[in-house]
Structure formats: structure tokens, C-alpha cells
Amino acid sequence: MQKLFFISKHCDGCQACEAACLEKHSQSQSLFMSKLERPSPQPRIRVRQSGNQYWATICQHCTDSMCVRACMTGAMKFSPMGEVFHNPDKCVGCWMCIMVCPFGAIASRSEIKKASKCDLCKDEKTLPCVASCSQQALFYGTPEEYEMKVAGD
């Protein structure tokens, strides 16, 4: 199964990945016009800073996912490939998934009382967040491919 990996030593905190994600998940598909949308779109990846170090909060698509187990409506579920997906139509905004996620990767969209998380942009060949990262701090691939990439750095 492919996952989205973050390589912290490459990140300069530019937040281009957040902007690309926000644009992709906006109704207008425009970063500029997204500011006018209601409900406001949210990025599914968030970059934070601690001192001079950056890290990205992204869904790890856990194989034994606590958010899937905690979801009382079945809004959080596994895809046939094993990724964790969220169905907002089934979400009742109980926030149990948010409370149990050890990575803080699920956000509340309080305007619409729904949870929100990375959906791996399944309709895209290249993830917008990965394509927008000029520092190559994001990598989409298998754990084995990630290990080879990090070993080669």
C-alpha cells in the first residue's frame, strides 16, 4: 500500500503543500476564490514549526486504525487497498475519530459539523501536495520505496 511520507530535514516550512491541498479541496479549485467559499475549505495536511524544525501532520492510513474503530456511523472506513477514508455523508460530527487519532491528522470542520482528513486525492495521478513541494519533503510511495529514498539522501 502506498502512503504519504514526510521527510522533515527537507522541509523549509513554506506551506505550499497546505495551499495546494486547500486549492484541490475547494469548490472553485482556486486558491484565491477559496477565501470566499462557505463553508471554508480546509487543507488535509498541516505544517507546524517547533524552533527551527518543521513537521507535517498527515493521516498515516494506519492498518489497525483507531479512528475506524471509534467511528460509530461507519464514516471512517478502510478502502479495498487498506487506506483509511472518510465519508462525510455518514459523519455526524461526534469527533471520536479526532480524539483517538494519535497523529492529530483529523480536523474538525465545525462550520459543517464534520471531520476532515487526507483522502490521498485518489482522482489525481500525482498528489497536489507532493507536486507543490519544491524541497521534496513529501514522498508518496510504499514504505520500502520511502526507506530507499531516505537511505539515498
**What is the element string, with H for helices and E for strands?**
EHHEEHEEHEEHEH
Q: How many strand elements?
A: 8
Which strand order does the major sheet show? Answer: 1-8
Supply the CATH class of the largest domain. Answer: Alpha Beta
Largest sheet, in brief, is:
2 strands, antiparallel
Query: Which stretches are poorly predicted, pLDDT < 50 over at least 5 residues?
Result: none
Mean pLDDT: 94
Question: Helicity level, as a percent range?
Answer: 10-25%
Brief overview, please?
This protein is α+β, with helices and mostly antiparallel strands and 153 residues long. Helix content is 25%, strand content 20%.
Explain what the structure shows.
Residues 82-111 form the 4Fe-4S ferredoxin-type domain. Pfam families: Fer4_11. GO terms for molecular function: 4 iron, 4 sulfur cluster binding; metal ion binding. InterPro entries: 4Fe4S_Fe-S-bd, 4Fe4S_Fe_S_CS, ET_IronSulfur_Cluster-Binding. Keywords: 4Fe-4S, Electron transport, Iron, Iron-sulfur, Metal-binding, Repeat, Transport. The protein has a two-stranded antiparallel sheet. The longest helix is centred in the last third of the chain and has 10 residues, at 143-152. The protein is built from six helices and eight strands; from the N terminus they run βααββαββαββαβα. The protein is globular and about 45 Å long. It is of the alpha+beta class and 153 residues long. It starts with a strand and ends with a helix. The chain folds into two domains: 1-58 and 118-153, Alpha-Beta Plaits, CATH 3.30.70.20; 61-103, Alpha-Beta Plaits (2-Layer Sandwich), CATH 3.30.70.20.
